[in-house]
Amino acid sequence: MSDKAHEQVVQRQFGEQAAAYLSSAVHAQGVEFALLQAEVAGRGDARVLDLGCGAGHVAFQVAPLVGEVIAYDLSAQMLEVVAGAASQRGLGNVVTQQGMAEALPFADASFEFVFSRYSAHHWSDLGVALREVRRVLKPGGVAAFIDVASPGRPLLDTHLQTVEVLRDTSHVRNYSPAEWLRQVAEAGLQTRSHTRQRLRLEFASWVERMRTPAVFREAILALQASVGDEVREYFEIAADGSFSTDVLVLWAER
């Protein structure tokens, strides 16, 4: 699939669901918000790029503490939601801009911070996007990447990628911590730290948020019912399809 074709899939998948992501508890809540706020505290003049901003939750959390936040996403409908919510919240320093992670329309060394949360698994080329992040970061600038992570073991990885793409056809890949560390280093960024969190996904809201077709919902449930104990126990799969997954929080510097 070409980058243009993938871009069209992402636009289709997230256009009609944009408003649902603004109210999604998974996206609106998270202990990592406090970490992001602590990182920008005292940096009232800083410029922040919320890369793959979705419904703008990161932008809304850090905007009161910095000079400007660019909320950047591929979906025009998502950006409309962000702009409306920012206006309602009185966050006049949140600016929306549309585009791909692999081709950032910003000058070199434009940002003190680049934050990306639950977006990287949609990018067509993680390595290219990370090199773009390094390019737009100022020397000494900080990047934070938060995303669902693959456990790395082939059996568990295959299961995760399968249920993800059945639920959302714009899914590209959940990378393992080892894959992240390698690609971050190859992009010329220095990893400062990386930690693992667990995220519980309630099945009904998880598939409804993407308006997953019934045939794919049934396929996910059938797959979950047929896997072995190792997979079922790792992902803590419940009878209703709800499950837990790993989330990587990685900090890097230019």
Automatic annotation (TrEMBL):
Gene3D superfamilies associated with the record: Vaccinia Virus protein VP39
InterPro entries in alphabetical order: Diverse_substrate_MTase, Methyltransf_11, SAM-dependent_MTases_sf
Homology family: Belongs to the methyltransferase superfamily.
Annotated Methyltransferase type domain residues: 49-145
GO biological process, one term: methylation
Name this protein carries in UniProt: Methyltransferase domain-containing protein
Keywords: Methyltransferase, Transferase
Species: Metapseudomonas lalkuanensis
Keyword Methyltransferase tagged: yes
Family annotation (PANTHER family): METHYLTRANSF_11 DOMAIN-CONTAINING PROTEIN, METHYLTRANSFERASE TYPE 11 DOMAIN-CONTAINING PROTEIN
CDD domains, per database record: AdoMet_MTases
A molecular-function term among this protein's GO annotations: S-adenosylmethionine-dependent methyltransferase activity
Methyltransferase in keyword set: yes
Pfam family, one: Methyltransf_11
